[in-house]
Amino acid sequence: MQKTAASLILTAVMIFSTASFLPGCSTNAVSLEPEQNVVQNADFSYSYMDYPLERNGISLHLDCIKKNGVNPDKNIILIHGVTYSSHEFDINYEDYSLVRFLAREGYAVWRLDIAGFGQSGEVTDGFMPDSDYAAEDINAAVRKIVEITGQNRIDVLGWSWGTVTVSRFASRHGEHVGKIILYAPILSGVGQYDVKDPFHHNTWEHATDDFQKTKDGSFDLNITDPVVIEMLASGSWHYDRESSPNGGRRDICVPEDKRLIDFSGIEAPVLVIYGGKDPYLNYELLGRISGELPAGSEMQMIDGASHVAYIEKPYYRKFQRMLIEFLRK
Prior knowledge:
By secondary structure, the chain is of the alpha/beta class. It has nine helices and 13 strands. Helix 4 links the parallel strand 8 (154-159) and strand 9 (177-183). Mean pLDDT is 89; it is low at 1-36.
């Protein structure tokens, strides 16, 4: 991304803001006891806590945000994609944050960083946290949430590669699954590519690559607010730094006819929600899966939206509305 001086200043401000104000910015993946902070905005205050979790000898970052002073009986966990971690669900600008939207709707909102990502512990082999491995990290987190809350059914949202990991978790460990949201589902391979490096080299340009662009290659500011672009990019640099594991990327960089999500083992209702202009999706296959979905499932397309519909200016409120209407049924 080419930056003007003003853009560089904004970037510096956003990095400082992300490190100093947004919750969950400690570089320690796990504390000995849950750490609670109260985060204010104009309308609500939010309670934020980290919860210690470990699997396979690796500390996993699990946090929870809810409206301050309430004890929700509804819980949802959000699972990130293949390169950047769960901070992306909390773009705390205006009302874009998916985390805070769900908290306002009465949910305890949980976020997990898969091993090697974000604030979770590092891995020596970047190929180890593949889709099957990540599914077991999700299982560990959901069991922890059940233990903490006493609630037996937890709703689960996966985005992008997170739809692959969530579907595999749900098919193997469905006993604690409430409803499932597969957002921008990677139903099949995105194309054959030989992923040789166990770690992905993260760049500022890559962090912003999902935003829609105009014909001249610049960001389409009719679709995405420039502050949102800067906040997501600076958050990615702050939390995810220069590299992330490539096990998930190796899983999805396979031929387009290879199925990655199997619904046959999933019993919970599923919302499949996606944008109409998402370059990573197999639309032909999307048109054929409705008969495979469990009872009570739905499919929703947001026309004109891309891979990041949840933070696109014309579409994010529609995304939020579709999500909450499904969850309330």
